[in-house]
Fold these 3 entries.
Entry 1:
Amino acid sequence: MSKLIVEHMVLGRLENNCYYLHKEGETEAIMVDPSTKANVIYDTLKEKGLTLKAILITHGHFDHFMAVNELKEMFEGVTVYAGAKESVLLEDPSMNHSILIGKPYVVKTDVPVKDGDEITVGSMKCKVIETPGHSVGGVCYYFEEDDVLISGDTLFFESVGRTDFPTGNAGELRMSITEKLYKLPDNTSVYPGHGDATSIGHEKVYNPFCCIV
Ligand SMILES: [Zn+2]
């Protein structure tokens, strides 16, 4: 089993982590939350000899998906995955806040996913974990074989996502983190939508908003 490589670029004025994942020695790539600047993403992937096969969206805030439609045109046969319940944000520029920056933007998901669904791209495999709270249909993507979690804006390095946007819910966010994410092994690497990477074990001890130790 070859190793999963997780790389990222920081794009957009909200400094989003746009992750791209591929197996060592393989060319098929997954992009998570392509924030903006599709041309930069395209050039980066091409330079590395990677072919984009799938886009995974963690949730429907504009800063996580405004390069999706362009990337779908640039690469052939890209499948877009997002939480089924998140279409209320993804398909509504007021709900996803793209209207606030004067660039109304909507995305249609190819494959709406729900809790427990498995996504396979090349030899990469991940499981969908529904984590409502930051938004109603937000999900995390768990690459179990590789001990990797892509956490979107649910769990950050020593912080958590805000819950004051439409469909946010502080109680649900706490439940998502403590009842779902903290059940993953401590050595799981956590890659959030903004800021530094962390691990489940670190957050259980040091997260001031969701500490259970
Ligand atoms: Zn967000």
Entry 2:
Amino acid sequence: MKKRTALITGASSGIGYELSKCFAAEEYNLILVARREDRLSELKNYINEEFNVQAEYIVKDLSKPESANELHAETIEILKKSHLEKIDVLINNAGVGDLAEFRDSSLEKLETMVNLNILSLTKLSRLFIDDICSSEDGALINIASTAAFQALPCMAVYAATKSYVLSFTEAIAEEIKSQQLQTKIICICPGITESEFQVRADMESLKIDRKLVASSAEVAEYTVKSLKKGKKTTAVHGLMNKIGTLLPRILPRGSVSKLSHQIMKKIV
Ligand SMILES: NC(=O)c1ccc[n+]([C@@H]2O[C@H](COP(=O)([O-])OP(=O)(O)OC[C@H]3O[C@@H](n4cnc5c(N)ncnc54)[C@H](OP(=O)(O)O)[C@@H]3O)[C@@H](O)[C@H]2O)c1
């Protein structure tokens, strides 16, 4: 079988790192993207040794508005050099959060979050979508969050960026379906997951029930399963998370924000 190629952003830790191993096991060649070169280089070597695929990496700060275009151009160069045809699967996984009330939040962090979680994800989706749609096994996988389903006081901008990812992915999935294309457009919504996310988002002090925390490997495996099933556009990981994302559809919007605020105040 012809090997497909996947580009994974945020491959240097957490969910993206585990996704890279899962996709290598599924015989995808890989282009790994993040900022920490030492981590990417180690992962590339590991994948090249352990799996029968080709892994390459590109170091890129995707919070810069020009980065998506640069990454697209550098990817084309790598594909040419490696005799690989195109990107069949794009996984927009890189993302950051910030735990703070809006009036206490840093403007710099907000800009980074919006540029990374929304702008780069959108631009990369647009830059690669034609290749993805022309692939027999094409897929666009965007990593959102259960935070996408309701307003989240204390993480207002993060949750709003993830609502964007969910709305954007569902809309383009419908467009692609109506064009009779087989391309899979999937939005994965993890709940709280063990990774470096909490440290980066100043969330280490949160009092979270460990039973509700998934591992990055579990979320990565769930992503591969969702891709293979290919039925649902929106895939929420975990039963409790699935139930949690149903509540905002039943309750009045005002009560949902109030309830999320109360929960956040309890755990912060
Ligand atoms: N962990 C959770 O509880 C949770 C829950 C729901 C959704 N998610 C989502 O899952 C995705 C993956 O997060 P994670 O939990 O695996 O966290 P993580 O361990 O912090 O991984 C984030 C990845 O994104 C990369 N990244 C961060 N800033 C970047 C930038 N400016 N440019 C390029 N790459 C950047 C990081 O690599 P470098 O630092 O090397 O660049 C890292 O590889 C995110 O979109 C997050 O919102 C996480």
Entry 3:
Amino acid sequence: MRVLLVGLDCAPPTLVFDRFADVMPNVAALRARGISGPLRSVMPPITVPAWTCMLSGRDPGELGLYGFRNRPRDHGYALSMASARDVSAKRVWDRLGESGRSCAALFVPPSHPPSPLRGSMASCFLTPPGAAWTFPPSRATDWESRFGTYRSDVASFRAGDLGRIFDELHAMTAQHFAIARHVWTEERPSFLAMVEMGPDRLHHAAWDHLDPTSPRHVVGNPWLDHARDYYAALDRELGALLDVASDAVVIVASDHGARACEGAFAINELLLREGWLATTHTPSTPTPLRDVIDWKRTRAWAEGGYYARVFFNVQGREPEGALPEARLDRAIDDVRALLLAEGPVGTNVWRPTELYGEVRGVAPELLAVFGDLAWRSVGTLGHGAVKLTELPPGVDGANHDWNGVVVMSGGPFASTTPRAIDASIFDVGRTVLGLFGVDPGPRWRGHDWSRV
Ligand SMILES: [Zn+2]
């Protein structure tokens, strides 16, 4: 038994199963003889926690991963970028390695810096240019001699120069799939997981151009065809990999979806207006929170992103805490009520204990999605309003969405009639372990579709 997991970061059912399905014959063929459907992501539906949830069977609270960036254990105000060092849970390749199977983990977030496994690893998009990117380290020399200098990501993918961005996208994707084909055939791992970041970069670079439902879409713009061509190229690369993996059980999955961003919720403007947050002066243009915040007079602040994280500035806990701890619980309820009252229709606000089996690391006191992800959060100040229907500079047209995709084909999924399923992101890793007959242990979330 050999299992191939091809991850397409951010690929939504609206494109893979619908609008671009006609240029993805290899995905269609897998669906026609297997099981497929939307794949429900986690809260938050963000790359670093989502792939880790998929491949560790733990939720974001259990992992202590709440986004790309997380707060330090000492409750300092700065956020630091997540890395593979922040993942202490075992992932699928660790469990399979323990059972004697060889694995390859290629470009799976977060995997910088690369770490030992029974097989080989190429680190993910978080790898800085020139950094060590493989395990064993000697693989880098071999692979770069065959496939060129490692392309971990598309540079400045929100810069707007779409010609250059598309060139980089195609080159990156071709290189990644070439490495995957090489590793699959030369190293013959029992399990190979690869994640292609290209679709995510395409969406954040060009969503307004490719989605007619975006409020900023211009009918007839040329980049829609380029986006379709990119998905066609992805499918051709998948087909070439399937050509050398005809004996494999194949899973195609994405970590979350994407949708048009209809507006930006300037959450710190609201906290400022309502007296939770204080500033040293009032900026007149969009300004980073940390340039103007007066910590000593701030009781709550929030971070922007596809969702909002609200933190409270508690005396004796934060460096310049202003809120007595005895008032924290009431304050959390008050801010939650404020966000629900002021947010667009479909706004949801949770305490982490309502979402997760455990709350590790420094979690936000509240997590909020605005308009069921139709709106995003911005943490900057100086907008002069809370609800921004014109996106501020640096904010792109794509928000992440709840549903990715999953397709499983071959082995126990083989069928002459396609079957539609509703699956959770946790099911993917659990199913891979199930395919190999490896006991996931009691805390591994998800459903094993190989046993249906
Ligand atoms: Zn992602």
